[in-house]
Amino acid sequence: MGGRVETFAAPEVRADDHVLGPADAPVTVLEYGDYECPYCRGAARDVHRLLDRYPDAVRFVFRNFPVPQLHPHAEQAAEAAEAAAAQGKFWEMYELLLRPASRLDVESLLGYAERLDLDTGRFSNDVMGNVHAARIERDVREGTRNGVNSTPKFYVDGQRIDGKFPLDGLVDAVRAAVATASAG
């Protein structure tokens, strides 16, 4: 019996992706994440360290991959992030949602919106009305097509980083990609 090798599409950055860092950076780190996942919360800190270490060489892309079977508030938190993005504050909301002690119930999400000076009526309508569900579903569909099987799942220049502790592999892959880009 021959084993079937699974092949996945490499993610490509879209014009409407959430991107941090220079658009022309030679290295792209893309994460599929879930705001309620404790590993994603830990990874957010490490991603910031990478961006601080390579400010001109790395751009970071975040996509939604809520896993509601494990995290009952994950989809609502993704809606909150997208509702904040609609008001120009995606990364600020991302930071609040991924803090280690962040709560993701509706009351807390509204509190974050107030803290970020968002139009809370619009924010509330967006979140409660699942206004951004299609975008979140598209991220999940693409993530599945790209081989996402857990969160966080990272890609460096389209290459999936696997392993029990993907951050070790992430740091090594970014270091190698930056060195290659510098040499090129």
Order of helices and strands: EEHEHHHHHEEH
- The neighbouring-strand order within the major sheet is 1-3-2-4-5
- Average pLDDT, to the nearest integer? 92
Largest sheet: 5 strands, mixed
Uncertain runs: none
Radius of gyration: 17 Å
Structural class: alpha+beta
- Overall, the morphology is globular
Tell me the total number of β-strands: 5
- Helical run tally: 7
The portion of residues forming beta strands comes to 5-15%
Structure overview:
The protein is of the alpha+beta class. About 45% of the residues lie in helices and about 15% in strands. The chain has helices spanning about 40-55, 75-85, 90-95, 105-115, 120-130, 135-145, 165-184; strands spanning about 20, 25-35, 60-65, 155, 160. A five-stranded mixed sheet has the order 1-3-2-4-5, sandwiched between helices. A hairpin with a 2-residue loop joins strand 4 (about 155) and strand 5. Helix 2 (about 75-85) runs antiparallel to helix 3 and helix 2 (about 75-85) crosses helix 5. The longest helix has 18 residues, at about 165-184. The protein is globular. The termini are far apart. The mean pLDDT is about 90.
